[in-house]
Fold this protein.
Amino acid sequence: MRLRYKVWLEHEELGKAFGDGPLELLDRVERSGSLRQAAADMGMSYNKAWHLMRKLEKAIGFPLLECRSGGPHGGGSVITPRARELMAHYRRFREQVAQSLAELYRRNFADFGWLDKPG
Amino acid sequence: MRLRYKVWLEHEELGKAFGDGPLELLDRVERSGSLRQAAADMGMSYNKAWHLMRKLEKAIGFPLLECRSGGPHGGGSVITPRARELMAHYRRFREQVAQSLAELYRRNFADFGWLDKPG
């Protein structure tokens, strides 16, 4: 037996605003310098990734990506400083959530003898 | 902006083993004394509720319901003592999860000024 969970940030009207998927996409943009490449690596169309970014930006209220034109590789996408800040906060939040839920699971269900049994 | 989450207990092979839905169903069985009534109140077929109970019992490894036959109302379903214990632990776990996640959300995202804004 094990604990499973999902967490995400949600805008009251616009729906999902940030979560593990967007974090992974932004991480990949940061490494590759390209939203197109990041989307492809996650099996997502560029069109879908682009719309997702616009929706997230609207929900959180600040830009996540900036376009850089020119340069030796013909430009690409760059993470904004506030996006980087959000990513760092969300990553830390996710780690603390994982620790806290594992501890609460142990504390509340240890009596049932499930915890170390496979299955 | 707000935090959303889902938590549940999962058996490695059998899938979902306990969560908010099963807790509500058992709560209703406890109050009504009838799985059929409890299922109907949740808009679920008796057949579905019955299969769900058998699956949960298999996953957690002990019986949740006992049938009582006879009596003035023609018998019904009764929660087992271990089911009651599981329900109490799960309810406490859910409360602690809610408190902990609200606190972690405040701690990590207070800087973004989202917390008290509607939307």
Summary: Helices of chain B lie at 20-32, 35-41, 46-60, 81-109. Chain B is about 55% helix and 20% strand. Chain B touches chain A through 38 residues (CB under 8 Å).
